[in-house]
Amino acid sequence: MWYFVWILGLMLASAFTVLNLVGLERQAINKSELIN
User: How many domains in the chain?
Assistant: First the structure.
């Protein structure tokens, strides 16, 4: 049961990281569009 909680935490952390990266990429794309 203990490992299940650990795996769940890892999945949440990785999903959060992916969402942050996607958000940063979108911000960078918007900024480059504004500059151009």
Answer: 1
Q: Which amino acid is at 18?
A: V
What is the extent of the structural domain holding 28?
A: 1-36
Nearest Cα neighbor of 24 from 12, 13, 16 is: 16
The reply to whether the predicted model has a pTM over 0.70 is no
Is pLDDT larger for residue 10 or for residue 25?
A: 10
Q: What is the dihedral of CA 23, 26, 31, 35, to 10 degrees?
A: 170
pLDDT range class, residue 33, cuts 50, 70, 90: confident
